[in-house]
Specification:
The complex is a heterodimer of chains A (about 240) and B (about 120).
Chain A lengths: L1 H8 L3 E2 L2 E9 L3 E8 L4 E7 L1 H6 L1 H13 L8 E7 L2 E7 L4 E2 H6 L7 H20 L2 E2 L8 E4 L2 E4 L6 E2 L8 H16 L13 H4 L4 H10 L9 H12 L2
Helix pairs in contact in A: 5-6, 5-9, 6-8, 8-9
Chain B lengths: L1 H8 L10 H4 L4 H12 L29 E2 L6 E2 L17 E2 L6 E2 L15
Antiparallel strand pairs in B: 1-2, 3-4
Classes of the chains: A alpha+beta (about 240), B alpha+beta (about 120).
């Protein structure tokens, strides 16, 4: 099925872009690597026709929110394609591997320094979004790209303008906590028979680090804003 | 309200109490999980779970009809803030003009260079 899709679109010409290969698939549709007529590598995010028709007002958010930013840590919106039943966004290509691939394909074990570098940089990206009134809502391991020391946040398909109700900033705090736990578990010895213990009983963490993660995940206390998170992360995790 | 928030957050996959059983496995089931999780986002898990934080800054986001532009190529409505027409892909001109004298303004200008009118 995946191969069929790869073959179907390879070499397809869309305006000034030529599709090279399919690189991902999600609830929205398909993602392709493409090249512009000037040789620039780009990503084309093609929407399933059903998704676009059904949620057209919702899909607008991704375009409007990405239009607001010109930041090297998030992909820039470069264009919109709508031709011959192909509807998609042209996005800046970011080099790097997703944390999901690093963890589960390459079995990468993140060192403490890597953990700290990724954590603090991701927190600062979230801070930039929140300062602009945006909540990402999808901070997960397939949506964070790592390229050496650089950290990128991609996929703004679920991003919304924050409010005090459905789209609260604390959605990102909770996802951040979950994301950080994936990194921490990469260097945790794999046991053949997984015991069903919670992370705070398995991982070797200081009481401050545990409290930090619990607050992110909304266990007991909670964080009020991303600035406090940045401050505490820097203090509790810096070696 | 508190009760409703709790009951809806209870439906969600992440409970904050997972361990190696969850974080070290990412097979077929994990991927399936991702899709289900993404689809169920609208519920906003842990949303306002004991945290009625009404002081969080909420910005004036562009609403549907605020500053709605019409595309110069296809005449479709372009949502406020979008760099492109979402129908035909035409780039929206980001040039600004002084409201006082009509002079074209350079990006990020704070004052009009012709009449000195304060921008924004």
């Amino acid at each position: 099925m995946w191969l069929c899709k790869k073959v179907k679109y390879a070499g397809k010409q869309l305006g000034r872009y030529t599709i090279e290969t399919a690189i991902g698939e999600g609830r929205y549709g398909l993602c392709f690597l493409a090249r512009s007529d000037t040789g620039q590598k780009v990503v084309i995010k093609k929407f399933k026709p059903s998704i676009f028709k059904k949620n057209s007002d919702k899909n607008v958010y991704e375009a409007v929110i990405l239009s607001r930013f010109k930041d090297k840590r998030i992909p820039e919106l470069l264009g919109v394609i709508n031709e011959k039943g192909f509807y998609g966004f042209v996005l800046e290509f970011k080099n790097g591997s997703t944390v999901k691939d690093m963890l589960f394909k390459h079995k990468h074990k993140f060192s403490h320094e890597e953990f700290f570098n990724i954590g603090i940089k991701l927190i600062r990206i979230i801070k930039c979004l929140h300062e602009n009134g945006v909540v990402h809502r999808d901070i997960r391991i397939p949506n964070i790209l790592i390229d050496n020391d650089e950290v990128y946040l991609i996929d703004f398909g679920l991003a919304r303008w924050a409010d005090n109700n459905q789209y609260h900033y604390n959605i990102d705090f909770s996802y951040l906590g979950d994301f950080l736990l994936y990194l921490l578990y990469s260097s945790f010895p794999i046991e053949k028979k997984h015991k069903k213990l919670p992370w705070y009983k398995e991982l070797l963490l200081t009481s401050e680090q545990k409290l930090f993660l619990k607050k992110l995940l909304g266990i007991g206390l909670v964080y009020e804003n991303i600035n406090d998170i940045e401050e505490d992360f820097a203090e509790f995790f810096k070696s | 309200m508190g009760f409703l928030s709790r009951s809806s957050s209870g439906k969600h996959y992440k409970n904050g109490h997972q361990g190696s059983n969850h974080y070290q496995k990412k097979g077929l089931l994990g991927n399936l999980f991702d899709i289900i999780a993404s689809r169920s986002h609208s519920h906003g898990y842990y949303n306002n779970y004991g945290n009625q934080n009404n002081n969080a800054p909420v910005y004036n986001q562009p609403t549907a009809n605020q500053n709605m532009k019409l595309c110069s190529r296809c005449n479709s409505q372009i949502p406020a803030g979008s760099k492109f027409c979402l129908q035909c892909g035409e780039k929206v001109s980001d040039a600004l003009f002084c409201l006082n004298c009509g002079e074209k303004l350079p990006p990020n200008a704070k004052f009009c260079l012709k009449c000195g009118n304060k921008i924004g």
